[in-house]
Amino acid sequence: MLDYDKEADAYDASRGGEPRAGAAADAVLGLVPPGTRRLLDVACGTGIVTRRLAAARPATRVTGVDLTYGMARMAAGRLPGAIVLADSRALPFPDATFDAVTSVWLLHLLDEPEDVRAVVAECARVLEPGGVYVTTVDKAAAHDVGSDIDAVLAPRPRRPARDAAPLVESYATAHGLRPAGQARFRGRGQGRSPRRTAADLRRGWFTTLPPGDPLTERFVAALKALPGQERPRPDPEFTLRAFRKPTAGFG
Description:
The chain is of the alpha/beta class. The protein has ten helices and seven strands. The protein has a single domain (4-144, 160-191, 234-244), classed as Rossmann fold (3-Layer(aba) Sandwich). The protein has helices at 4-11, 17-29, 48-56, 69-78, 113-125, 139-142, 148-153, 165-174, 194-203, 214-224, and strands spanning 38-42, 61-66, 83-85, 98-103, 127-137, 178-186, 237-244. Strand 1 (38-42), helix 3 (48-56) and strand 2 form a beta-alpha-beta unit. Helix 1 runs parallel beside helix 4, helix 2 (17-29) crosses helix 3 (48-56) and helix 9 runs antiparallel to helix 10. The longest helix is centred in the N-terminal third of the chain and has 13 residues, at 17-29. The mean pLDDT is 91.
């Protein structure tokens, strides 16, 4: 797992920057009703997407929340007075506070299914009846674009996908939310090159392959043998799912 306090300053540049943030925000807003009054962006990170949500909907009061001080500090610089330092598994807001809640690139980071269930439960709790929860799903799968890099990495050990779409839907349903749409968007500027992927392996970005491990180094050697060491392969395409909290009296 990355140390997000240490990564905060360089995080955006290493994750596609403004082009990726713009694509994410546009896709999220396509699932958020136009009349939304209060929106909570859970695990807002550096606020690069959160700021775009707020700018696109001036009539919507946007709040961001993040667990990591370094990330929250960056977000607060982008949205002064709108960022809260808190754990997404125990949100510091009363029930039914927001009519939209988003969590972009969060659920895949959580270590245990109980953590994912807790986050979804909290997002459902703070959502008003009739409100919408929007979240990314299947994050790891999005990066498998069928490239030669993916072929090299295919045998690597993998951990279970905590954000698999069927699992997230089951957790949402268990807390009274109902499927309300989906969208896809491209992670612009995130296409992997062999050299960058090898560096990421050695930094520990692939959590099942520890830096310095002999298996890690075997994958690094295979990546270094690929042609086009600096050429990015196709960008990943991410998936969003939306869930609505029913209003009282409607089944």
